Amino acid sequence: MSTSAQDQRRPRASLHTLGCRLNQSETLALREKLVEAGYEIVPFGQEADLGIINTCTVTAQADSKCRQTIRNFIKRNPEAFTAVVGCYSQMGAKEVASIEGVDLIVGNQDKLGVLDYIGDGEKNDLPVIVREKIDRRDFTMNFAGERPFNQRANLKVQDGCDFVCSFCIIPFARGRARSRDLADLMREVDSQVSRGVRELVLTGVNIGTYDNSGLDILGLVDALDRVDGLDRIRISSIEPTTVPWALFERMADPAHALLPYLHLPLQSGSDKVLEQMRRRYDATAWADFVQRAAEAVPDLFVGTDVMVGFPGETEEDFQDSCRLLLDNPVAWAHVFTYSEREGTLAARRDDHVPMRERHRRSARLRALAERLRQRWHEAHLGREMRVLFEDPREGIAPGLTDNYVRVVVPMPDPVSVRNRLGRVRLQRVSADFVEGELVEVLG
Ligand code: SF4
């Protein structure tokens, strides 16, 4: 930036997130810091002076997607300062450093402080790596409110994990379990609600282990329920052994803001595989829990994660996973293909399933997941459900029911219902959503 016209304009920054909801919420926190520091935020892909790529390392495929994204950014913006932050920076700093044009690599501990290392934005001759040990203490986020409005906003409440499942790199990438300071979290909630946010999606690595200011996950959910103006609380995902039963009482109570939504990772339907994964339950316990929860909470959505191709997984083990999903009230399964993560126990095994077979099984399970979703959607036809309407598209008001059915309502003036709750009669299953008609606007 040398000409006077360029000197007058604000520096432009663009951000990109790979991976989970937690990363998405952290990118928004980073965005706020950039706005506060005087940057103009431009969409990723446009010309920028600074690019920050918030990475993921959950699978080998995630690593490769990160490398591709970083290269593409540098190719389009050879003069820009390129900072790579997050999980892949934490675990694969050397690989990131080998990409020509990268200026800065920051792991998870200092991710939100990345601006401190960018200085005047002049490119570095060699990439600087900042990869500090991850703190064990609870944390704050200092929400500033400088982020795009979203009626369903992610709320980071927790980070890290102490469980150390044998396939998982996350406890190394994100450190030990720790919780967000309650007062800091509540400041964000109040500010979001005053901006009109109606639903908060609690995000973290192992949310059920939340523990701060004398509140566990149940106490936290109750504290959020007491916030005036907050209509909906959704827990993005929760580990099976960490769910207090009383959460289901809250979900079943229509006056409580906690939604009937349970994403309960399974990983495998084979007891042998679960044990080798070092999961803390067996298949029967998982299924019993889901059955009981579905009986206790009307219309409960149950989603799950399943890993395919763990070392030693036989066709029979895989069939156990398929059967468990089909035999239980599961509405959706997110399928992960196992990939070796260096440093994990499972990576050291010598009975890896051939990659082709892993992909074959993943494709079969994904097809099954689609059938589950279809079954779930069809079970709602003819019913009236409460929907929170999101940003409209031409002639269409999209939204989600409390129990996570994606709904679209064709209407002449969809803007009129944006960010409002309505009652919708569900009529037709179409691809991955259900079409319906508006019965009434609720508020
Ligand atoms: S519970 Fe297991 S799979 Fe989940 S983040 Fe912790 S170690 Fe990884």
Structural notes for this entry:
With 443 residues, the chain is an alpha/beta fold. Among the domains are: 4-130, Methylthiotransferase, N-terminal domain (Rossmann fold, 3-Layer(aba) Sandwich), CATH 3.40.50; 260-338 and 346-379, Transcription Regulator spoIIAA; 384-441, Beta Barrel (OB fold (Dihydrolipoamide Acetyltransferase, E2P)), CATH 2.40.50.140. Helix content is 31%, strand content 22%. The chain is built from 13 helices and 19 strands. The protein has helices at 4-8, 21-36, 60-76, 87-91, 93-97, 170-174, 182-194, 217-225, 246-252, 271-277, 283-296, 315-326, 355-378, and strands at 12-17, 40-41, 50-55, 81-86, 104-106, 128-130, 152-156, 158-159, 178-179, 199-203, 232-235, 261-263, 301-308, 332-337, 384-389, 396-401, 406-410, 421-430, 433-441. The strands form five sheets. A six-stranded parallel β-sheet has the order 2-1-3-4-5-6, sandwiched between helices. The protein has a five-stranded mixed barrel with strand order 15-16-17-19-18. Helix 12 (315-326) packs parallel to helix 13. The chain is globular and about 60 Å long. The chain starts with a helix and ends with a strand. 44% of the residues are buried. Iron/sulfur cluster binds next to helix 6. Iron/sulfur cluster (SF4) binds next to helix 6. Residues 11-123 form the MTTase N-terminal domain. Catalyzes the methylthiolation of N6-threonylcarbamoyladenosine (t(6)A), leading to the formation of 2-methylthio-N6-threonylcarbamoyladenosine (ms(2)t(6)A) at position 37 in tRNAs that read codons beginning with adenine.
